[in-house]
């Protein structure tokens, strides 16, 4: 009998994937239903193909949808659903106006799923590169509560703030990255071209050079003679670090190290916590469970270290501790935000207080980004001063000695 790859939903709403052996697709669906699962998609597997390979192949060819496209899509869906337009018709109308192939192909797939009898959240779940689990859960909560238009309105606001936060993070990293590149280029030019010229000049005098000058000339000679080895080491190191970051442990250590960078680390941490609080608030107000909110909001941060600490918070909640005690165990939040957690639990307005916590973090990020230049200037002055000192000792000290000998 042939094998069929299936995607089903368990009675508690969880997604289930696998492969089943049956005579026909209908027989496979009957077997799944008899086990209590609700079939969502059933496709015949190719010979020798596992369901994991089929699923990987399906997601491999899905294109990434940009954040700007998602913001526009959620706003349009809110307006069309609020006007009473049926889902399929609304999606077709949006698809006709979309110019980006990634979103247009995704919407076509969602339309086909809806015409096959699926719910919107189930259809969106098949396109994880376009719709995250957090978005799918919010849409599902909107469907179950009958407030799908409000769910898309919440999503548009969340994605809009997400874009603003990402822009702030990029602004925080742009200036120091540019400065580090400029310093690296200047050091390379001085080492490969400027110092060798001074070295030849000093050798023509046939005089004993000070040790700082000899060290600088030796480093310059090595870099000039074996630049290809240095370049190969740098390239190998780059790809080695890149491969290490792709592992779970490497990604955890890399994300942890980023948060410890002076000045920049605190901005990245606050921006990530703002995104977490915003996502948690939106999910909780839409009816998503607390444990699911913590997990989905943490996974949406793209920071393994913070996500691991939020897992500690999730485990604490799961074991019966209060949200405030669990947040304190995560060791991520400031005392002021922990107080907001406590007030939210006491008053029953957790979503409102977390929204205020997100506003608090976003204001701090905005303030630190605006003052980033003033914070980095002392570090740059020290670095540039060290470079000038090295050049002064290595270049001008022998010139001073030769001038004294000439006199």
Q: What's the quick description here?
A:
The protein has 407 residues and is mainly alpha-helical. Helices cover 76% and strands 5% of the residues. It has a three-stranded antiparallel beta sheet, with helices on both faces.
Task: Give a verbal description of the structure.
- The chain is mostly helical.
- Helices cover 76% and strands 5% of the residues.
- A 3-stranded antiparallel β-sheet has the order 2-1-3, with helices on both faces.
- Strand 1 (3-9) and strand 2 (15-21) form a beta hairpin.
- Helix 4 (87-97) runs antiparallel to helix 5 (101-115).
- It is elongated and about 95 Å long.
- Residues 48-61 have low confidence and may be disordered.
Q: Give the uncertain stretches in residue-range form.
A: 48-61
Find the count of extended strands (DSSP E, 2+ residues): 3
Number of helices: 18
Beta content comes to 5-15%
Task: List the helices and strands in order.
Answer: EEHEHHHHHHHHHHHHHHHHH
Largest sheet: 3 strands, antiparallel
Strand order of the largest sheet: 2-1-3
Q: How would you sum up the global shape?
A: elongated
Q: Which structural class best describes the helix and strand composition?
A: mainly alpha
The gyration radius over C-alpha positions equals 29 Å
On the 0 to 100 scale, the average pLDDT is: 78
Proportion of helical residues? over 70%
Span between N and C termini? 101 Å
Structure characteristics:
407 residues; mainly alpha; 76% helix; 5% strand; elongated
């Amino acid at each position: 009998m042939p094998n069929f790859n299936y995607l089903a939903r368990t009675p508690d709403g969880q997604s289930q994937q696998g492969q089943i052996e049956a005579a026909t697709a209908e027989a496979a669906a009957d077997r799944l239903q008899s086990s209590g699962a609700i079939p969502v998609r059933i496709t015949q597997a190719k010979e020798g193909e596992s369901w994991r390979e089929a699923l990987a192949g399906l997601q491999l060819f899905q294109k990434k949808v940009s954040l700007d496209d998602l913001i526009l899509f959620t706003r349009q869906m809110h307006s069309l659903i609020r006007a009473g337009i049926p889902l399929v018709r609304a999606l077709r109308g949006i698809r006709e106006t979309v110019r980006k192939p990634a979103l247009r192909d995704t919407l076509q797939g969602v339309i086909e799923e809806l015409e096959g009898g699926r719910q919107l959240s189930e259809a969106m779940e098949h396109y994880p590169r376009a719709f995250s689990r957090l978005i799918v859960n919010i849409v599902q909560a909107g469907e179950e509560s009958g407030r799908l238009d409000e769910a898309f309105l919440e999503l548009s606001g969340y994605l809009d703030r997400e874009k603003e936060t990402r822009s702030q993070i990029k602004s925080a990293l742009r200036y120091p990255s540019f400065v580090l590149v400029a310093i690296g280029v200047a050091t390379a030019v001085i080492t490969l071209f400027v110092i060798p010229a001074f070295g030849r000049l000093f050798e023509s005098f046939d005089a004993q050079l000070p040790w700082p000058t000899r060290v600088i000339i030796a480093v310059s000679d090595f870099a000039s003679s074996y630049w290809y080895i240095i370049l190969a080491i740098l390239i190998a190191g780059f790809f080695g670090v890149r491969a290490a970051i792709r592992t779970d442990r490497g990604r955890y250590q890399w994300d942890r190290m980023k948060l410890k960078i002076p000045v920049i680390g605190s901005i990245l941490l606050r921006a990530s916590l703002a995104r977490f609080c915003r996502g948690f608030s939106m999910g909780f107000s839409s009816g998503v469970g607390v444990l699911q909110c913590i997990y989905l909001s943490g996974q949406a941060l793209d920071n393994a270290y913070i996500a691991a600490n939020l897992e500690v918070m999730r485990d604490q909640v799961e074991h019966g501790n209060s949200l405030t005690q669990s947040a304190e165990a995560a060791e991520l939040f400031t005392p002021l935000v922990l107080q907001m957690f406590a007030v939210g639990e006491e008053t029953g307005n957790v979503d409102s207080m977390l929204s205020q916590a997100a506003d608090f973090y976003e204001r701090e990020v905005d303030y630190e980004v605006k003052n980033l230049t003033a914070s980095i200037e002392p570090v740059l002055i020290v670095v540039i001063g060290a470079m000038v000192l090295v050049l002064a000792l290595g270049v001008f000290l022998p010139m001073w000695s030769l001038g004294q000998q000439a006199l």
